[in-house]
């Protein structure tokens, strides 16, 4: 707890931040999440601010963040090409942009019907690339407003289009409205990488 408290903050602009959402939400819904967020691009500017414990965290998370960013750049190239604006249209903006890593812990919840890990939202990013330990992510079906569970496939990354790409594509690509459901049996861990074209 001592080490966690070093990073505890409500300041969303801190480059490394630990926090919880274990509190009452609106409409009597509980939010049930513990998180660590930190900037990750350019890696050399931020990695020394990350937690030192566990000992291999900086090395392993740095490699993961770098690899996920490469994937995001490849996806960006394909999407801008599909929009007819050329594969390199966003290259400079992506290089100057941000990457934020969010490591989320959703503890087992005694009354999951009264709580959410995260409320419904879309991400303010170009992409969110997600790795999760177990099922819990739900996306909203835009046709009828119902929630659909996203299956967890072993070692698979999930890619969400964010608000930036929805605007850039003039709505052709849609930001994914999603939430996190909880369960009574197990803790769920996720690592979300938010790739943005604009610096925060």
Overview of the structural elements:
The chain is 24% helix and 28% strand. It has helices at 2-7, 43-46, 57-82, 91-96, 163-168; strands at residues 16-20, 23-24, 30-31, 34-39, 99-106, 115-116, 118-121, 127-132, 137-140, 147-149, 158-161, 178-180, 188-195. A 6-stranded antiparallel beta sheet has the order 1-4-5-13-8-11. A 4-stranded antiparallel beta sheet has the order 7-12-9-10, with no helix packed on it. It has a 3-stranded mixed beta sheet with strand order 2-3-6, with no helix packed on it. The longest helix has 26 residues, at 57-82. It is globular. The protein has a single domain (1-196), classed as Sandwich (Jelly Rolls). The protein has 5 helices and 13 strands. The two termini are 29 Å apart. This is Fe2OG dioxygenase domain-containing protein. GO terms for molecular function: metal ion binding; oxidoreductase activity. It holds the Pfam family 2OG-FeII_Oxy.
Biggest sheet features: 6 strands, antiparallel
Question: What is the CA–CA distance across the termini?
Answer: 29 Å
Low-confidence stretches: none
What would the average pLDDT be, to the nearest integer?
A: 90
Domain count: the total is: 1
- Classify the fold: give the CATH topology: Jelly Rolls
Helix content: 10-25%
Structural class: alpha+beta
What's the count of strands?
13
Apparent shape? globular
Q: Count of helical segments? A: 5
- The CATH architecture designation is Sandwich
- CATH-defined superfamily: B-lactam Antibiotic, Isopenicillin N Synthase, Chain
Proportion of residues in extended strands: 25-35%
What is the element string, with H for helices and E for strands?
A: HEEEEHHHEEEEEEEHEE
User: C-alpha Rg, in Å?
Assistant: 17 Å
Write out the strand line-up for the largest beta sheet, numbering strands in chain order: 1-4-5-13-8-11
CATH C-level category: Mainly Beta
């Amino acid at each position: 707890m001592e080490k966690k408290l070093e990073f505890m903050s409500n300041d969303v602009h801190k480059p490394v931040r630990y926090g919880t959402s274990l509190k009452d939400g609106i409409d009597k819904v509980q939010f049930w999440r513990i998180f660590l967020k930190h900037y990750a691009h350019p890696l050399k500017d931020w990695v020394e601010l990350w937690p030192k414990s566990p000992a291999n965290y900086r090395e392993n998370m740095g490699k993961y963040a770098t690899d996920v960013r490469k994937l995001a750049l490849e996806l960006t190239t394909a999407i801008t090409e599909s929009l007819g604006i050329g594969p390199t249209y966003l290259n400079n903006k992506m290089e100057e942009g941000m990457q934020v890593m969010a490591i989320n812990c959703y503890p087992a919840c005694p009354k999951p019907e009264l709580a959410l890990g995260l409320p419904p939202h879309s991400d303010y990013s170009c992409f969110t690339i997600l790795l999760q330990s177990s099922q819990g992510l739900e996306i909203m079906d835009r046709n009828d407003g119902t929630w659909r569970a996203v299956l967890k496939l072993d070692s698979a990354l999930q890619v969400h289009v964010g608000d930036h790409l929805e605007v850039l594509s003039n709505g052709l690509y849609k930001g994914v409205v999603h939430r996190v459901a909880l369960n009574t049996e197990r803790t769920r861990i996720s690592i979300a990488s938010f790739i943005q074209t604009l610096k925060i």
